[in-house]
Amino acid sequence: MPDFIIITAWCLSRRVNASYADALQWNPEYLQAHQQRAGLLRQMGQIDASRAAYTALLDLSPALEGALTALAELDAPAAVLSYYRAEAFAAQQQHAAAQSAYAESLAQDPDYAPAQLRMAELLLDTGQFSQAYDMIQRHHAQARSARSRWVQGRILMGLGRSEDAEGVLAQAVELDPNALVTREALARLQLELRQAQACIDGFRELTFRRWRHPGWLQTQCHQLQRSGDGLAFRQLLLQTRAQLAGWLAQSANGLENRWNALLQRCDEMLAVIPESAPVDPWTGASGLSFDLQLAEMWLAFSTVLSEQHEHFQDWDKESVVGDWLDPEQDFKAAEAQFLAYHPAYVSLDALSTEAALSLWRHCRSLPVCHDFWSLPGSIQATEAEGILTPLIWQLAGQLASALPGLFKGLQLQAVRLESLYALEPGQPRPLQAAEGQLLAKLWLGPEATQDQLLIYDVTMPAFADSAAFQRLLKDELAKQALLQSRAKQVYTLPGAAGRLVLMQAGLLHRHQASALPATGLLCLNLVFGKTRAGA
């Protein structure tokens, strides 16, 4: 009888092990299956298989309690144990401890390839590029893989060897075509190298392979950046409209209203996007050719709805929940980002009213931080500033066209956003521009007029010591005495009548809001400075 029980238990263990193995084939990251299988193999006396199962478990979760102890009890090599201790430290962002443990592993086995690779990655992540390069070269003497090529490419980028990095990353993609992180790194590097067609092809292939990732579309929409060619955008929008029309005709999943709303939005956008490329106000170049960068904007808009269509084919209506799977929301986010980064297709009137506030409210949570100008005085913009960038461009272009004598005489060209904030009744806002600059103040909001604002300008006293002037401003009575007259409206634009004031530099400017509209009011302060040649 005991023999029968032992045989039965052994057969059951084999069946359970087979079940775990089958589950891991379908889901290699099934942590519980790894853990249970490792323990079962150990009970069955299959030490080598159990050791391999525990290493697979630690690869997935280095800090998992008890796994490293179990591996040590199975007499794993000292270098392996030190390596997984380092992995646990790295998972907890304890970089110094991780580097020490990787070094200990390599001291125990100088040729242990996993420790070499991860040490190279850690050195890369902590900015030690030269040491990282030496380590990855040492690793490649033992083993080469798509991942090691990816690490090597990133190290070369850190060393400023972009052309070499491109070749290495291309090799990594060939070794593992499904390594999406490598594809993305290569496409972004080609973007940096201004290899437009290769970049576009790379992002298109990345999009094709990545469409099933549920959170990718939202991330992509949040990272949209300005298009280098509005005509390409228009053509892709036409293709999107054709796809939408086809899907709407086939739709039977209760989402026809959403598809139809998106179709109508495509029509609205096509109606306002011109068929010919605009002229850049600074360079006179057609199609903004001076800054052909960030081509993923083209791809994101051409794929945003096809991505959603594929999702709707995979999940029934009840399971489509959350903003990340809302095509209308994603479409609006992408559209808002396009308006934010492609000023040539935005009018001042369109963004100077409720539309500006709507875009700002809609996209205030988007992670936007990019260089908007290749001109002198370019800035890093915050999320709120980013959505109003087309307004800044439009204002700058119209001012330069309307006031060529002023701009040419003062050699004004560079523009930067000094500040952007929501006004509150009774809250004063001072601003001072340096000598040789021009300050433009623009108020955004429905029916915003200067009658709702108290605006003052003050000629700065000729104090040789600026600290003395600062002390004067701290004296409230003295400061109020300085604020003697309301500022005069020097210049206005037809599209911003009553909302724009230009002020010469060398003045202290202060304004205070009074009767604000219920929707609030945004104040935009632009500073125009000299060109680099005239600075």
Task: Summarize the structure in words.
- The longest helix is centred in the N-terminal third of the chain and has 25 residues, at 2-26.
- Helices cover 56% and strands 10% of the residues.
- Strands 1-7-3-5 form a 4-stranded antiparallel beta sheet.
- It is built from 24 helices and 7 strands.
- The chain has 535 residues and is α+β, with helices and mostly antiparallel strands.
- It has helices at residues 2-26, 31-43, 47-60, 67-73, 78-91, 95-108, 113-125, 129-140, 146-158, 162-175, 180-192, 196-210, 216-222, 230-250, 256-272, 296-314, 327-341, 348-351, 354-363, 383-387, 389-402, 404-409, 466-474, 476-482, and strands at 412-422, 428-432, 438-444, 453-459, 500-504, 507-513, 522-530.
- The chain has a domain at 2-213: Tetratricopeptide repeat domain (Serine Threonine Protein Phosphatase 5, Tetratricopeptide repeat, Alpha Horseshoe), CATH 1.25.40.10.
The level of helicity is 55-70%
The largest sheet, given as strand count, sense and whether it forms a barrel, is: 4 strands, antiparallel
Number of strands: 7
Strand order of the largest sheet: 1-7-3-5
Derived structural class: alpha+beta
- Which fold does the CATH topology of the domain at 2-213 refer to? Serine Threonine Protein Phosphatase 5, Tetratricopeptide repeat
Q: State Rg.
A: 31 Å
Mind telling me the CATH superfamily name of the domain at 2-213?
A: Tetratricopeptide repeat domain
